[in-house]
Write a structure and sequence with these properties.
Layout (H helix, E strand, L loop, with lengths): L26 E2 L11 H11 L11 H11 L6 E4 L2 H12 L6 E4 L5 H8 L4 E4 L18 E5 L11 H9 L6 E4 L20 E6 L12 E5 L1 H14 L6 H12 L1 H24 L3 E2 L6 E5 L5 H10 L2 E2 L12 E4 L3 H15 L11
Parallel strand pairs: 1-11, 3-4, 3-5, 5-6, 6-7
Antiparallel strand pairs: 2-8, 7-8, 9-10, 10-12
Helix pairs in contact: 1-7, 2-7, 3-4, 3-6, 8-10
The chain binds 4'-deoxy-4'-aminopyridoxal-5'-phosphate (PMP).
Length: 361
């Protein structure tokens, strides 16, 4: 920190993204990316758009909003494309929270929520999970705060049903409820249909996981046109060209290829179930995840030790130091062969054997 920094940010603890090391090739199971590549037409669309990079992109991203509206069954005025869903979360904290309107979210959830609350000086109401790590929707009825819930939740992967989400939205008519659906395409129920019924519901989506575009940075806010207008005003007051030309083109092409991506999500969900079964056979406990990751712990090895030993074998998983979940690791579901390598390495670690490196050389 320099002596020039605004005192407003003196105590800021920044979000720490999962590691992206470049020292060697790892089997990357730590940041929930898709193991499958973007479709050919997405690559072609991005390359074509690159030819026009001397010009600014469309600040209204109209083509992308139209494509999203068609796939999600809403109108283009109900969609705001953003530079990754982290950006729409930031806009939502700015637009719908302030000193008088705190934010409530599950105590164990996406680590960006407390960072954004602190960034904007918003009071946090962190609501504990149940003992089985699930969210109890009763805790979120009539709170008088902005509510943010990841569904499925991170890092547990446990999802609320659509009826439970609707109960929360309906019970907070004077406040915005944000449902962060970063992982919904891997097996949970989306609340997008409810955005036409409730003017206080904002659903956020990302193309980082289900649509193989983590590096392109593309996400969406979907909600009543009043909410989207509020968020667009903040977007236009910070970065009007927030989604670059190549990403807009890639996103439109990805919506046209939605079937390819949904099939990939089903493949990932099948691999998730197979991997969970193999890990349970090795003695792991796993939460019932509907996301593209597993959240697991083993009675005989700490989360930190397993993380370190897998890393030594060229496999990256995510370990969180937060006390209540420090025994666990979050393991992204990759391609079947990557998960087989994970199972082999884990079996070696548990049996105390050194084993050979599983990293791709
Ligand atoms: N929400 C949740 C629950 C996440 O886990 C992530 C991924 N880190 C995001 C939002 C943000 O994803 P992105 O900015 O890549 O769209």
């Amino acid at each position: 920190m320099s002596s020039f920094q605004s005192s407003r940010f003196a105590g800021l603890t920044a979000y720490v993204p999962g590691e992206q090391p470049r020292d060697r090739r790892y089997i990357k199971l730590n940041t929930n990316e898709s193991p499958y590549p973007p479709s050919e037409s997405v690559l072609r669309a991005a390359a074509e758009a690159a030819k026009g990079l001397n010009l600014y992109c469309d600040p209204t991203a109209l083509g992308l909003r139209m494509a999203a509206a068609e796939v999600y069954g809403v109108t283009p005025e109900m969609v705001l494309p953003v530079n990754g869903s982290d950006e729409i979360l930031n806009f939502a904290f700015m637009a719908f929270c302030d000193r008088g309107t705190p934010v409530a979210y599950p105590e164990t959830s996406y680590g960006f929520y407390p960072v954004l609350a602190d960034l904007h000086g918003i009071i946090k109401r962190e609501i504990p999970l149940k003992n089985d790590f699930s969210v109890d929707f009763h805790d979120y009825l009539g709170l008088g705060c902005t509510v943010v819930i990841a569904n499925p939740n991170a890092p547990t992967g446990i999802a609320l049903g659509l009826d439970e989400v609707e109960r929360i939205v309906a019970a907070n008519p004077g406040n915005v409820v944000v449902i962060d659906e970063a992982y919904v395409d891997f097996g949970a129920e989306s609340a997008i249909s409810l955005t036409k019924k409730y003017e206080n519901l904002l659903v956020t989506r990302t193309f980082s996981k289900s649509h193989s575009l983590a590096g392109a940075r593309l996400g969406f806010g979907i909600g009543d046109k009043g909410l989207i207008a509020d968020l667009t005003a903040i977007k236009d007051s910070t970065n009007p060209y927030n989604v670059n030309a190549m990403t807009q083109a890639a996103g439109i092409a990805a919506f046209k290829d939605n079937g390819y991506y949904m099939e990939n999500c089903r493949r990932v969900a099948r691999t998730r179930e197979d991997t969970a079964e193999s890990l349970r056979a090795l003695g792991f406990e796993a939460t019932p995840s509907k996301a593209n990751f597993l959240f697991v712990r083993h009675p005989e090895i700490s989360g930190g030790e397993l993380y370190e030993k897998l890393r030594g074998k060229g496999i990256l998983v995510r370990h969180f130091s937060k006390e209540s979940i420090a025994g666990y690791n979050r393991i992204t579901v990759g391609a079947p062969e990557e998960m087989e390598a994970l199972i082999r390495a884990t079996r070696d670690i548990l049996s105390g054997a050194g084993g050979n490196s599983n990293a791709k050389k």
